[in-house]
Specification:
Length: 473
């Protein structure tokens, strides 16, 4: 039997099944205990986060009035830490060759009908040019796991190619990486290649389900997968992004597991995850999402986001185009800080006129172009940001977190968001988007506290109009 220990480096001890079961029982016992719910909400208002047990009580609470308070607090915490900024990114699929047997993913080796494709370096260049022409500055690269077709050397070569492409005023300034769990040595190589965040979804924290859902291939090894972030940090990677594929197992179990993972990283490395992603299983080539009977309502999905926002206020939250514009709108308000836009989830998808489906990893539910997403965000009162300054200025890992906790990060983020939005408006936006954006920037300059900073920002914005690019604090 394993004993719960957040400081342990053993998967079954820091994600401890017995502790999760006890947490769920505690949440059930206390979900109607409004006095305790109030105490937890009071603690949450201090904006220092909640434990997995406390947050699980909030998630289980069914009292309408208390739930309204949970949503209001999540919205307020989001505003305090992230303002109205939403960071934009796009996934870039490099290869769908894969040796794993993940039952929910069409790239699994069992799928003998999906066309297999791996981008050449010239194709990577063409994809990056297409992404730069949309206005993207930040990518998340995605690949199946295949040591022969997609070894680490291939991934490293792709990263180098991506950073090297300079097309018109375009540039990819941050490459985040979402590839299978690997060794400390490989994480060190990724760090040296200048990656931003290393992202790896746990898929499910429930060990037995995990083993059933990953019947074959290296990903079958639960401990190796669950301990990946510790190896990544040992390899020098400062920012890691965790996530669960909601729908595979019971959402309450996953929610507790996610927070325990965050607590573990904080306890061992002194810094929690940089981001948390909340994908849900979607229809794909040979995948029917109803085959997994743990799907959750949009309402509960939004509540999970609100509870994550309250439990880990300093951790960014990501929502992809797996979700519809309607769900994205709701969930952004409750705590999401990063979204993808104009995404294509197939290998080589950005260079095709029409969105191709043949090598797609999942069916996207938000089909809008990046310009339409940017336009929509601004109309809803958000500032789309293409900023990549923090990691380029060394504001990563614990340094980023301490700036975030002291509230000082706002002084950089707000001006940087406005300057990168300005670049987007000048270089890529449609006329309507540009008009809305210029008015938004004018209004938002007024929200900068210090007059001296206002002046600097105005000057820098003029320089961008004059052709200068990549100005940041
Ligand atoms: N192959 C890498 C690995 O093993 O972690 C990660 C890259 S994979 C392209 C990115 C993520 O897509 C997976 O971790 C999984 O959570 C998600 N995914 C796979 N199949 C999906 C589906 N049918 N619907 C939604 N998301 C899916």
């Amino acid at each position: 039997m394993y004993k719960y220990d957040p400081k342990s480096l053993k998967a079954e001890e820091f994600i401890n099944d017995e502790e999760i079961q006890a947490t769920l029982a505690y949440a059930d016992e206390n979900k109607d205990n409004l006095e305790l719910v109030d105490q937890i909400l009071e603690k949450a208002k201090l904006r220092k986060g909640l434990s997995h047990r406390e947050a699980s009580v909030l998630l289980a609470c069914e009292d309408e009035k208390k739930n309204a308070e949970i949503y209001d607090l999540a919205e307020q915490i989001k505003k305090d830490f992230y303002g109205t900024r939403i960071v934009m990114f796009a996934p870039l699929y490099l290869s769908n060759y894969c040796v794993n047997g993940c039952l929910y993913c069409p790239y699994h080796a069992i799928n003998k009908t999906i066309p297999r494709k791996k981008l050449t370096q010239e194709e990577v260049r063409q994809e990056v040019i297409a992404l730069q022409d949309m206005g993207h500055k930040r990518l998340a690269i995605e690949s199946g796991e295949d040591p022969i077709n997609n070894p680490i050397e291939y991934i490293l070569e792709c990263i180098k190619t991506i950073y090297s492409v300079k097309h018109k005023n375009g540039a990819i300034r941050r490459v985040n990486v979402n590839i299978a769990a690997t060794t400390v040595e490989n994480y060190r190589k990724l760090k040296e290649a200048g990656i931003g965040t290393y992202i790896l979804f746990q898929e499910t924290y429930h060990k037995d389900s995990y083993e059933v859902l990953h019947p074959t291939g290296p990903k079958h090894n639960y401990a190796y997968h669950t301990e990946a972030m510790d190896r990544a940090m040992e390899g020098g990677i400062d920012d890691v992004g965790i996530g669960v594929l909601f729908g595979l197992d019971k959402y309450r179990y996953e929610f507790a597991g996610l927070l325990m993972h965050a607590e573990h990283l904080e306890a061992v490395h002194g810094v929690g995850p940089h981001t948390i992603s909340v994908p849900r299983v979607k229809k794909a080539d040979d995948i029917d999402p109803t085959a997994f009977d743990n799907s959750l309502s949009d309402e509960m999905f939004c509540k999970i986001a609100a509870c994550i926002r309250i439990a880990v206020p300093y951790t960014g939250m990501i929502i992809s185009t797996r979700e519809t514009p309607e769900v994205r709108e709701k969930i952004i308000r409750l705590g999401v800080s990063q979204i993808s836009g104009g995404s294509r989830t197939s290998v080589g998808g950005y260079t095709e006129e029409e969105r191709p489906h043949d090598t797609e990893q999942f069916d996207v539910s938000d089909h809008r172009t990046l310009d339409e997403v940017v336009n929509w965000l601004m109309r809803a009162g958000y500032i789309p940001s293409f900023c990549t300054a923090c990691y380029r200025e060394g504001r990563v890992g614990d340094r980023f977190m301490s700036l975030c906790k002291s509230g000082q990060i706002q002084n950089c983020c707000h001006p940087n968001a406005l300057m990168t939005l300005k670049e987007y408006l000048v270089d890529y936006a449609s006329e309507d988007t540009r008009k809305i954006g210029e008015a938004l920037i004018e209004k938002e300059i007024e929200n900068i506290g210090k007059d001296s900073i206002k002046e600097v920002v105005r000057k820098e914005l003029k320089k961008i109009e004059g052709g200068k690019r990549d100005i940041y604090f």
